[in-house]
Design goal:
Helix content is about 35%, strand content about 30%. It is an alpha+beta fold and about 190 residues long. The chain has an eight-stranded antiparallel sheet with strand order 4-3-2-1-5-6-7-8, covered by helices on one side. A hairpin with a 5-residue loop joins strand 3 and strand 4 (about 100-105). The longest helix has about 45 residues, at about 1-45.
């Protein structure tokens, strides 16, 4: 009888000691299976320029005037289609969440006449620039500087896989990439992404 009690007590000790170890091993194995999937999901969650534009326009309908990536934030300026409203938006590059930083409803529609008449949108200009030089769109800006004597155009910065920034001018009527230059990775945009 004493022997049965001793064996039962020993078995209980083994089970009590081994159960937490088995549970920890199972939890560790489960973590190992889900960690790569979570890392892959995080890598896929990076919001592209096109997705940032779409999110901004869904939040504040109009025409994108500029888009710029600064670290993990896309800064997007949108002009309403009547030219009277302007919003400065931020789109989180990880989640796509949009926040309004500044909204102005007293814009002079004449200032945005060229942008509103452009046949090529910011998203189309970005696509044309990437087609001419593969990479990732980093900046798209409407440039209508009348002092330079140039006709308005889209200025697009594309980051190549080599880390260099490629600048392009895109015609707002035809979408043709009319000028292109390589520059090193030290651009005006923040490189913290």
């Amino acid at each position: 009888m004493k022997r049965n009690v001793f064996v039962s007590a020993a078995a209980s000790v083994v089970l009590l000691t081994a159960a937490p170890l088995a549970t920890a091993a199972t939890a560790s194995a489960d973590s190992a299976r889900t960690a790569p999937a979570s890392a892959a999901a995080a890598a896929r969650a990076d919001v592209s320029a096109e997705q940032a534009i779409a999110a901004a326009l869904k939040d504040y309908p109009g025409v994108v005037e500029s888009l710029d990536r600064d670290g993990n934030i896309w800064h997007v300026d949108v002009i309403t289609k009547d030219g009277k409203g302007h919003a400065e938006l931020e789109v989180d590059a990880a989640t796509g969440k949009v926040s309004r930083e500044n909204v102005d409803k007293d814009e002079n529609p004449g200032e945005h006449k060229g942008l509103l008449a452009a046949k090529i949108t910011a998203a189309q200009a970005a696509k044309a620039a990437v087609a001419a030089h593969p990479g990732t769109t980093w900046t798209v800006e409407w440039d209508s500087d009348d002092d330079s004597g140039k006709t308005p155009y889209w200025h697009v910065e594309v980051r190549g896989s080599d880390g260099k920034t490629w600048d392009a001018s895109v015609d707002p009527t035809t979408g043709k990439v009319t000028a292109q230059t390589d520059s090193d990775s030290d651009s005006d945009s923040d490189d913290n992404s």
